[in-house]
Amino acid sequence: MNRLHVAPAQIPQTMRRLSFFQVWPEDSLERLAAGAKIVHLAKSATVARKNEPLESLYVVVSGLIRMFISLPNNMERVLALVGPGESLGEACLILEEACPYHAVAGKDSHVLVVDGMVFRRELGRDITLARRTLERVARRYMECLRDAEICSQRSSVVRVASYLLLFRPEPEAASFTFHLPARKQDVAAKLGLTQETFSRVLGFLDKQGLIQVSGAQIRIEDASRLQQVTTMKDCRETGNGDANLI
Amino acid sequence: MNRLHVAPAQIPQTMRRLSFFQVWPEDSLERLAAGAKIVHLAKSATVARKNEPLESLYVVVSGLIRMFISLPNNMERVLALVGPGESLGEACLILEEACPYHAVAGKDSHVLVVDGMVFRRELGRDITLARRTLERVARRYMECLRDAEICSQRSSVVRVASYLLLFRPEPEAASFTFHLPARKQDVAAKLGLTQETFSRVLGFLDKQGLIQVSGAQIRIEDASRLQQVTTMKDCRETGNGDANLI
DNA sequence: CGCGACTTTGAAGTAAATCAATGGGCGTGG
DNA sequence: CCACGCCCATTGATTTACTTCAAAGTCGCG
């Protein structure tokens, strides 16, 4: 598993610092902490394996965990990129089903590991914990639906544009800048595209002046213009230099 | 909305009959029933519209509700086919977010409509209800992940084979027969395929002797053989009559 | 029996995958 | 401080599986 354990004494303090636990009742938190540890995961370390039972709840403290499924052609389909303050494994633990995905560290990470038995026991005792967990799982479900919507778009340009617009800080923000949350090949895999196609689409949108790409940083000047792309049937380059967008 | 209300007196009895409510505590059930009604929906009647707030929880009593997203080219991507005993809308209600999908009756249906306010209030009171709802949402989430896995397969043959194998009654059943849960075009849309492609793949698998199709009824003699297809990179007809499938 | 909805089949077009090779950035070590 | 090597990203040429468009064929049902 490639895990390095970290000072156990810090656990309750760290837990309280995490927004994840902010709203958790104090006594539940104490009991959960008793069955918890913080581990360091080197990049590419495995957190969970597909079709194997999951025995813990994982809360990301720092770094990034990649949830994915392997496809033929040694490709991956990324289901989620789990960042600090986010968790993974609730649904599996609740249903006591085998894990339907692989999970590995996308970069060096610290993860709080909460014992699954303890978690499930507390879930039956503490209605606030149950309620919060319900919200978390519901949110994950909604994100999954949203991803399904993006991935079922036939046009790669629409897929990418829709994805980029998810980083809009407020619904009405016209311009904003952000960093892609992972390697471009992982983001591509999240969109159900190859890295080559993703790269080409990014280049295309840049050439159109709809976005500015420099490495992992992306700037969007006019979100509404990018939004328009989203509703179009098709808009790829037509062989000649500059396509007829708008 | 095209709704016909049904005898309100039957509501508590109907609720108790539904497996959905079997495990719900009696007093919660009483209060939920107070804010509930049973409606009849003609085929194609709208249940929920994308981007609009949802104000009720829907439990299907009979018939079939289709959850979907519209795509360009007046196509649909079906997210779920909700049958008797299943529900829809929990996640939206819990998060108080706009509905991320359309929902319409796929056939004439009876649906129990539980007031969202009442449902949310009971959720905060009754830990058993919270726990059961958590299980329901977790199950929906897992199904969503499973669908994502199927849809991210590049080969249509693999997609269809994987889907058909979901109807296997037990993990080890060698042969079984079942009916597709909806029109072929809707099943196709669930797999992210056109109805034409779905029809062709079904025909292909039939010609290979892997399945027998007659209308909506499908028989699988040797599930393990079909399972093999699932792991292959590609196996479509190569121009000539019969492809070289093991 | 005849209509409408759904499905099947055929032929052609196209967007994205694939294969292959180059280019850039960064950390390590000389 | 530069040079090497590794990983990641880009770019180009080709292939192909799926879509699309079009039309005929089933099926169920009034």
List the helices and strands and how they pair.
Two copies of one chain form a homodimer.
Chain A: E1 3-5, H1 11-17, H2 19-22, H3 26-34, E2 36-41, E3 46-48, E4 56-62, E5 65-71, E6 75-82, E7 87-88, H4 90-95, E8 102-105, E9 109-115, H5 116-125, H6 127-151, H7 156-165, E10 176-179, H8 184-190, H9 195-207, E11 212-214, E12 217-220, H10 223-231
Antiparallel strand pairs in A: 1-2, 2-9, 3-8, 4-7, 4-9, 5-6, 5-8, 10-12, 11-12
The first copy, chain A, binds a DNA duplex (30 and 30 nucleotides) through α9.
Summarize it:
Chain A is α+β, with helices and mostly antiparallel strands. Chain A has helices spanning 11-17, 19-22, 26-34, 90-95, 116-125, 127-151, 156-165, 184-190, 195-207, 223-231, and strands at 3-5, 36-41, 46-48, 56-62, 65-71, 75-82, 87-88, 102-105, 109-115, 176-179, 212-214, 217-220. Chain A folds into two domains: 2-151, Jelly Rolls (Sandwich), CATH 2.60.120.10; 156-245, Arc Repressor Mutant, subunit A, CATH 1.10.10.10.
